[in-house]
Design a protein that fits this description.
binds zinc ion, globular, 3 helices, 3-stranded antiparallel beta sheet
Length: about 100
């Protein structure tokens, strides 16, 4: 029997989206104190998004590493280059490349 997929109520998703936004703001604030705390906030934000089946917007997707889920800060722990109409993000801690097309 096929699995039943039902849409979650709109209200709950709205709250979840607000919480994800808040998590990324907190990650940004805590970066100077301890980068491990901001990594934890990224983890929490990702978990909320997965639980409520919310797609993270591209602006937030660029802020953490897809491989090690670390909070990325250009020139601190990540390098950004432009190549063939794409933004290339290079994570300095796990040496993983991420490519984002430029629109
Ligand atoms: Zn990484």
């Amino acid at each position: 029997m096929p699995k039943k997929y039902y849409k979650k109520p709109h209200k709950i998703q709205k709250i979840a989206k607000e919480r994800i936004k808040l998590m990324f703001e907190l990650a940004k604030d805590n970066l100077r104190k301890d980068s491990r705390i901001s990594d934890k906030y990224v983890k929490m934000a990702r978990r909320i998004a997965m639980k409520h089946k919310i797609r993270l917007p591209s602006s937030l997707k660029k802020r953490f590493c897809k491989n090690c889920h670390k909070y990325l800060v250009p020139s601190v722990n990540c390098r950004i280059r432009i190549h063939k109409h794409r933004l290339i993000y290079y994570c300095l801690s796990c040496k993983h490349y991420m490519r984002h097309p430029i629109k």
